[in-house]
Amino acid sequence: MLLDMFFPRRCVGCSQMIESDKAVCDACLMNIRFSYDDFGTKSELWAKCNLLFPLENAFALMIFDEVGLGRELIHQLKYDGIESIGKIFADWTAQRLNFGEDKPDLLVTIPLHPKKQRIRGYNQLHLYAEELSKFYDIPFDHQALKRVKFQRKAQAKRNAEERKIKGQAFALNKDIRGKHILLIDDVITTGNTMSAAAWELLKNENKLSILVMAVDL
């Protein structure tokens, strides 16, 4: 295309010219720390989340290093306006994630605060989830959750200590019942955001699995 001729896409890692549907060249792709988790196994991510809320399965596409290409790509997706990286992440995820016999019924994304979404112009998870929805033939719902302004307390069933989750409060926006929900976020660190959203979705006899672009271990 004409735009590609005058403004060719360059690899985030080495700056060489690449195809417009790529983010990194083949050589730099080898330097990204993919997790290689299996959706059905009890990974480090699963164990980390299971301390906060009950879940079925967990998958992280990448490891969130302090410095690295994965971190830079997520930064570009969230803060540099390059929404198309969400599709690239979806392609990478589709190559690596096999649900087996435990395929979820619904994809749900963590919502942004409305003000933040207005400033950014998009939710960085939406294109990612929509592409995965097409690949796996699973419906998505970006309005299942909404952010609310109160504090709430959540207690993981397998953790006796009460955890206070401040500033990361969600509420169900729809009546969702008896579903296996795949909750999607970009990066999981402490797990507080995911936990606050998870406890809302676990209502009404729903089951929950999680998918993140990267995990900070």
Automatic annotation (TrEMBL):
Transmembrane segments: none
Residue intervals of the Double zinc ribbon domain: 2-34
Superkingdom as given in the UniProt entry: Bacteria
Short name of any one Pfam family annotated for the protein: Pribosyltran
Record-annotated Phosphoribosyltransferase domain positions: 163-207
InterPro entries: ComF/GntX_DNA_util-trans, DZR_2, PRTase-like, PRTase_dom
Family per similarity comment: Belongs to the ComF/GntX family.
UniProt-recorded name of the protein: ComF family protein
